[in-house]
Amino acid sequence: MSNTEHGITALGVLALELVGGTTPIRAALSPDQAGELAERIGRDLAQWVPEARELELSFAAAHFDPAEVLRPGWPIHRRLEELQARAPGRNQGPRLLAFGADAQGEVPLPFQADPDLAGGSLRVLPFLLSGETSTVSRVADALEEVLLAQGMAQADTALLAQEAFGAQIEHARYLTVHDLTAMVSMQYDNQGLAPLWPLIETALLMPQAEEWLDEPPQPLLRYVDGEVRMALFDPVGWCAHYGQDRNECERLRGVYEQYLARQRQMAAVLEAHGIGVVFAHVTENADAREALRN
Q1: Pick from 190, 221, 253: which residue ends a domain?
Q2: Cis link prior to 217 (omega < 30° from 0)?
């Protein structure tokens, strides 16, 4: 659930787990296909929470990498909300709104996925539910309770998504954005990126807070003011900060290169989540934590 300038909205995704090594042929659906898929999504959600029928469903019939959805401020859902606010028919009862490719098959800029993040086995299609505040709140709470455990899409919904996108889909399921956050957290844990997750989670859920990664031998990072500041050491400074014997620095150059590769990996993950990274050069005798405070 999210508070926005237009009120409370419930944010979710239809998650498509693809057959390994395959990618969808189409980035977004035609207006007719988008509308048909949105109808089935509304029906599927109502099977778990009938009160969802009283809310307006807005759906982006374009697929993204999860990192594009899990960005501070939920920008893709916000773009969807902006389009919803401009669509005709407001105050005429709950609408079913679907946004995909235009009549010429072109994908509008708000829903153009990042090509650098293509190729993953999980692609997600954002949707949001909006309407009367108390109803949205109840529906959002109910979806948080049921989707992660029970949220498989009905077979005809998954088949339509497969045919419309030209994709090979193993599973199609619904998730709230919090469910998706938990799923990606587990994936990062399996990929050895667990130390980085608290910074991403803070940026998503508590963007005004501060969070540190200070767990040697990991890189030293500080999240603050919407960005991550990362300490950048030369070999001698790295040896000093991480307690290595200065006389052994040359022999440890291979370990230092691995450390730099780890920094690049973390920076790439943060940037995929829309979190800017600023490198702070730390001189040999400087206090690295203090350097990240300046």
Answers
A1: 190
A2: yes
What residue has token string 């807070």?
A: 209
Do 164 and 263 lie in one domain? The reply is: no
Of the candidate ranges 18-27, 95-104, 238-247, the one whose mean pLDDT is the lowest: 238-247
What pLDDT score does 5 carry?
43
246 pLDDT band, cuts 50/70/90, is low
Neighbours of 264 (CB within 10 A): 10
Q: Which domain holds residue 221?
A: 194-293
Mean pLDDT of the chain, nearest integer: 91
d(C-alpha 105, C-alpha 8), whole Å: 32
pLDDT by residue (tens digit) across 91-150?
A: 777 899 999 988 777 888 888 999 999 989 999 999 999 999 999 999 999 999 999 999
Q: Who's near 23: CB < 8 A, 6+ residues apart?
A: 118, 119, 167
d(CA 59, CA 21) in angstroms, rounded, equals 26
CA nearest neighbour of 61 among 36, 93, 25, 42: 36
CA distances to 148, 188, 199, 256, 266 from 194, in Å: 21, 6, 10, 21, 11
Tokens of 69: 């959805």
Q: Does residue 132 share a domain with residue 68?
A: yes
pLDDT confidence bin for 248, thresholds 50/70/90 = low
Which runs of E-coded beta strand occur in 47-181?
56-60, 96-99, 122-130, 169-176
